[in-house]
Specification:
CATH topology: ABC transporter involved in vitamin B12 uptake, BtuC
CATH class: Mainly Alpha
Number of strands: 2
Strand order of the largest sheet: 1-2
Number of helices: 13
Number of domains: 1
Helix content: over 70%
Shape: globular
Distance between the termini: 43 Å
Largest sheet: 2 strands, antiparallel
Order of helices and strands: HHHHHEEHHHHHHHH
Length: 287
């Protein structure tokens, strides 16, 4: 029973990581932009949801609020700041997004204070469901699993099977030709950034009831999301999904079965092992 429960915990962590890594890998792979501020958008989603729930008393109202706020923040950052750095080298992009992380952390501390916020679950999500005889599992974690898997399927379908996805791939492959064919590449990239930010906000609001909503919460999961992005292959939705599940399971079982020092580094050993044989990740988009 313990193994089944830990497997579910690992898959649940994996789908959370996918929500983070999918936006990260799309922006990095398609727009060639390293966005270290992605973790700050995750934090913004969690704080927005916690604040809205605290003011209104409604968890349901907090869900669209967190998604819309982080989507708007992502679009504003892309239009107002990040697009000026697309033609610059990766070091400039890393520095500007790292600066956003520092500013976001201090601004959040100024607005909400240093004390973590609580996100109590509504009664319908606070209980457990007996998935097997003698094995209850938290209802909210099952909801997280369902949402993550649904988002993964929807995102893959949009990117690979729709005209919007075609525009995104065309803009990334050859921007001048795409513009000449009538595609508003600036608008497509702003929308892509907003969608990636909204996914980070969704991950943040779902993590809020499980983890503490506190300043700096975005950095640890950003590191895991970067590991997922590298393992899966830059720009690959399928790679991000499979790598997220792999990292979630390995991290969960590593912390349960191994000594603390080794358990915390096992995912980095996994990344090094995979990159030794697949330097571009499991499912590289290019080459």
């Amino acid at each position: 029973m313990l193994m089944i429960e830990q497997t579910l915990n690992g898959v649940q962590l994996g789908v959370m990581l996918f929500l983070m890594a999918s936006g990260l890998t799309l922006v990095f792979g398609i727009m060639n932009f390293i966005n270290l501020a992605h973790g700050s958008l995750y934090m913004a989603g969690a704080f927005t949801a916690a604040w809205i729930q605290g003011v209104s008393g409604s968890f349901l109202l907090a869900i669209p609020a967190a998604i819309l706020v982080t989507a708007a923040l992502g679009a504003a950052l892309e239009v107002g700041l990040f697009r000026r750095f697309y033609a610059r080298n990766h070091l400039d992009k890393v520095l500007v997004t790292f600066g956003i992380v520092l500013v976001a952390n201090e601004a959040t501390r100024m607005i909400f204070g240093p004390v973590p916020l609580r996100m109590p679950l509504p009664p319908i999500l606070a209980g457990s469901i007996e998935i097997l005889p003698g094995l209850p599992y938290p209802t909210f974690r099952l909801v997280v699993l369902a949402v993550g898997l649904s988002v993964a399927a929807l995102l893959w379908a949009i990117v690979m099977k729709t005209r919007i996805g075609m525009w995104v791939r065309a803009g990334s492959s050859n921007r001048p030709i795409a513009s000449a064919m009538g595609i508003d590449v600036d608008l497509v990239f702003a929308a892509l950034f907003a969608v990636g930010s909204a996914l980070a906000g969704l991950a943040g609001l779902m993590a809020g009831p499980i983890l503490a909503v506190q300043v700096g919460m975005g950095e640890p999961i950003l590191i895991l999301a970067l590991v997922v992005t590298v393992i899966g292959g830059i720009g690959s939705i399928k790679g991000a999904f499979l790598a997220a599940l792999m990292v979630g399971l390995v991290d969960t079982f590593g912390r349960v079965l191994l000594p603390p020092a080794l358990g915390s580094m096992v995912i980095f050993l996994l990344m090094a092992l995979i990159l030794a044989f697949r330097p571009k990740g499991l499912f590289p988009v290019h080459g």
